[in-house]
Amino acid sequence: MRRHRTRGPIGALLALTAAGGLLLTGCGGGDDAARGATDTAVDSRGRGSAPMPAPDRPRGEGGQRHDGGATTGGTGDSREIAPEPDHLSTFALDVDTASYGYARRTLSEGRLPDPSTVRPEEFVNSFRQDYDRPDGDGFTVTVDGARTDEEDWSLVRVGLATRGAEQEGDRPPAALTFVIDVSGSMAEPGRLDLAKESLGTMTDRLRDDDSVALVTFSDEAETVLPMTRLGERRGRIHDAIDSLEPAQSTNLGAGVETGYDTAVEGRREGATNRVVLVSDALANTGDTDADAILERIADERREHGITLFGVGVGSDYGDALMERLADKGDGHTTYVSNTEDAREVFCEQLPRHIELTARDAKAQVAFDPETVAEFRLVGYDNRRVADEDFRDDRVDGGEVGPGHTVTALYAVRVRPGADGHLATATVRWLDPESRAPHEESGDVETGDLGDSVWEADRGLRVTATAAYFADALRSPYEGDGALPGAPRLGELAERAGALADRTEDPDVRQLATAVRQADRLT
Q1: Sign of the CA dihedral with 189 first, then 192, 193, and 199 last
Q2: Less crowded by CB within 10 Å, the N or C end of the chain?
Q3: What's the helix, strand, coil split of the chain in %, to 5?
């Protein structure tokens, strides 16, 4: 495993490689030191390189482009194989976890999740990782891997980490507009009642200099509470939360529009301004056109920098719409199904989403054609970025806050007998305030690959288990998964259970339970 950091543009490295072949405090801590960028381009082995244009990508069957490691066939499925001439893979960072949470909820109710709701990267990113963290804003890059049970195939993990979450008093004040779905469907236990309990707990933990607004929507939208500084007004906010009652239809478009109007009206300079949408995302009244709703979010994000955090609830859940809303709003999504999940989201996850340490973050992995025959990116199907757009800072990436880790997993077929450099991974992001670009990189050699993924360190084993699980749920009745070395669900359940026993990690225990439930249902 190699960890390497370089500052400043290193586009020449990747082009040459390819061409040559929220809010709550007290939940974590970290130091803040500024990171700069230099003008020196240095590759992962310390060699300087002159700028070169990115190579042209080939076209596959039917003229489909292979941007970002996409592959032949017209489905865009992440499990297909990249054509040999293209050894670049580019994607926008994503820290969503809603797909995994919703799958767990569905399995606990005795149903298999719809394969279209299974996004492998959200399964993988649902688990804590122990990557090294930077001292200040930006990322560290860790690349490692291990062999699978299928000949010549390995799993290569690219791990990106931001600094730890801030201590009490270190973050800027927050101006949060909560947009709460109070439609009839939210009357189901585990929806509106859960949201009210969580918001009440959150209110007690906010700082005096934080502000909260509350918008509700059913058939219409209403601003229940304008932007209100906490101070001595916590009782007023609790009263507004307690007054929430389920009503009629779900006019999600009206809720989003009114929510952003309220956020703009109450926008605070020098504060972190966010919209937090709590809904089952089942729009059935008013403007139900996703594109129109999404465009409004994009406009407000561009003009005012107000981003969106989506919290999904309910056994019937509009997963696809919520994910699209968050992506368009430069935000993230998660899913809650019980009180434990809700406390995790409102006390642990939201603090990491409230402040940004990186804007428009993208990753690009350059595989060495001398050692790599083919590769497959696991997931990130709707986060692909054209390879030539990696350093085009006008192209949207992902927003990431403190305390986050992002993991991308690749299945890689190593050429028989090949030895040496395997891949270099680079992350590029913009400083949240100055918009100055920065980059970090890391690389991995063939000799760094462990003998077996099942004997790798805890983090890689958990990553592999989560990825194989998502892969199996995408095609539950086809037996073997599409990923190389995929075990059947029964074997995966045994491995997940053994891993949970060794780690004594409750999150891994939940994963093992979900795999067993899926195995019984198939």
Answers
A1: positive
A2: C
A3: 35, 25, 45
Token pair 């999150």 is found at 507
- Long-range contacts from 475-479, C-beta under 8 angstroms, 24+ separation: 475/115, 476/112, 476/115, 476/518, 476/521, 476/522, 477/522
Q: What is the DSSP string of 29-89?
A: ----------S--B-TTS-B----PPPPPPB-GGG-B-GGG--SSSS--TTS---TT--EE
* CA distance linking residue 456 with residue 144, whole number of Å: 10
What is the pLDDT at residue 61?
Answer: 28
| Length of the chain (residues) | 522
Angle between helices 458-474 and 506-521 (to 10 degrees): 30
CA 521 to chain centre: 28
Under 8 Å CB-to-CB from 516, ≥6 apart: which residues? 493, 496, 497
Amino acid in position 383: R
Q: What 3-state class would DSSP assign to 375?
A: strand
Q: What is the pLDDT of residue 351?
A: 57
352 in Cβ contact with 403 (< 8 Å):
yes
Type of residue found at 198: S
Nearest to 355 by CA among 178, 176, 517: 176
Residues facing residue 312 across a β-bridge: 279, 335
The alpha carbon of residue 392 and the mean position of all alpha carbons in its chain are separated, in whole angstroms, by 21
What would the two tokens of residue 402 be? 């403190």
User: Does residue 120 surpass a pLDDT of 50?
Assistant: yes
Non-local (6+) Cβ contacts of 299 within 8 A are none
Query: Is 0.70 surpassed by the pTM of this model?
Result: yes
Which residues sit opposite 438 in a β-bridge?
429
Residue 60 in tokens: 């596959």
**Residue showing tokens 């000799």:** 447
Question: Residue 449: pLDDT above 50?
Answer: yes
- C-alpha closest to that of 130 among 423, 458, 444: 458
Query: Residues 6 or more apart from 318 whose CB is under 8 A from it?
Result: 279, 280, 281, 282, 283, 312
